[in-house]
């Protein structure tokens, strides 16, 4: 694997200056996971670098980019719905450039659909081509406005130093790796994001230092499976080692990370979290199902027993740790018995939060070939049962936090008039009367009450 360095595209910057009297505006919207949000911040950075400005509404834009997600069919339908709505804008403003990028566009069938049915889409480029956007715009202008729907390029390298425009001054996304090699049988991500590639520890550290120096209080390390960080790198390092390296940096910040694949979450990782006060007391550990039979069919490489051992170990070592998880309901062939095992598992673990999805068939994945006789109505009914059980669990955990004092980062305004909202170390949200405290500040909060999973609190003395 090779690292290449981003270089400023002077020809594209000149072309922008020549074509527009005032800086043109770009509207960039990202769908999907945090990795995509982070890519969106880089797309904005690249556009600013060649002289674009940014805007918050498609109506004001000279360039509209949808950075798409392909993980479920619903995500794709939403994008196509929103792209369809842009046709009117293009009619009013023919020089408007409309582009699609991200995970959806990595699939040839999507490019075919764009070619056939969306003539007003000008550009399409995949997840590996963010740094090439200036060249693509240039090519479009030089060709007199040709449509450029690029076939996905497989690039095994990592491009460092791509400019970035961060949305928040106090919460930063930091990708430590790209791609995924796990091929869970339901999942499209390895096909659209390519092979797993880790950034070098030095590159991660440099960006981390930059974030801390700029006053960032919460840094979230990103990867589809952060626990396999380091594979293939010249220097021997694993994710636990990377966390130790980063935590040695002085400063007023804390670290979150996602996503941890349970098959690669080691006891050593738990020990490092336990020993490092800078790492949040929360683990997102997607289990997907509580049935060993289904887990095997999903190609997840762990059993419920192994998963629960890990949870027990983390509970022993990290007092007050909370867990969250992703669950797929209605994987092909999931029986009532399999689903009951999932319900039993969530009662055992007692997750603070669950992200639940009804299985969505993704063409090209292995699970798409499996018979799936369970009717949709049955899957929806299972989902309702799961959500009800989870609500009771999460409400119980929230209530158990009342009376405690926890570190928290103030994120924004609360729902109630005059309050601010902060996220606790363990990932629960709290509303409180701010006094002189401000958004972006770390504070200690005493928890005074709970409404559902929303906590109420007050600033703790000292
Ligand atoms: N890399 C992460 C997750 C990426 S996708 C991990 O391994 O946990 C986020 C979540 O979407 C997955 O955890 C899974 O629960 C869900 N998901 C992925 N493919 C899906 C599909 N085909 N249907 C329904 N849910 C899916
Ligand atoms: Fe998809 Fe599995 Fe990779 Fe997560 S680990 S991105 S669920 S293939
Ligand atoms: Fe979606 Fe791509 Fe993320 S498919 S979930 S945006 S990796």
Describe the overall structure.
The structure is a single chain. This protein is an alpha/beta fold and 462 residues long. It is built from 14 helices and 21 strands. The protein has helices spanning 10-19, 34-49, 73-84, 87-92, 108-117, 133-142, 189-193, 201-213, 239-247, 267-275, 292-297, 304-317, 336-349, 376-401, and strands at 3-5, 25-30, 53-54, 63-68, 97-102, 123-125, 148-149, 158-160, 171-175, 177-178, 197-198, 218-222, 254-258, 282-284, 322-329, 353-358, 405-413, 420-424, 429-432, 442-451, 454-459. A 6-stranded parallel sheet has the order 3-2-4-5-6-7, sandwiched between helices. It has a 5-stranded mixed barrel with strand order 17-18-19-21-20. The protein has a 3-stranded parallel sheet with strand order 9-12-13, sandwiched between helices. α9 (239-247) links the parallel β12 and β13. It is globular, with a radius of gyration of 23 Å. The termini are far apart. The site of iron/sulfur cluster has 10 residues, from α7.
Provide the structure class: alpha/beta
Can you identify the CATH superfamily of the largest domain? tm_1862 like domain
Low-confidence segments, given as residue ranges, are none
Specify the CATH architecture of the largest domain. Alpha-Beta Horseshoe
How does the overall form come out from the CA principal axes?
Answer: globular
Number of domains: 3
Radius of gyration: 23 Å
Give the end-to-end Cα distance, rounded to a whole number of Å: 50 Å
Oligomer state equals single chain
The CATH topology label of the largest domain is pyruvate-formate lyase- activating enzyme
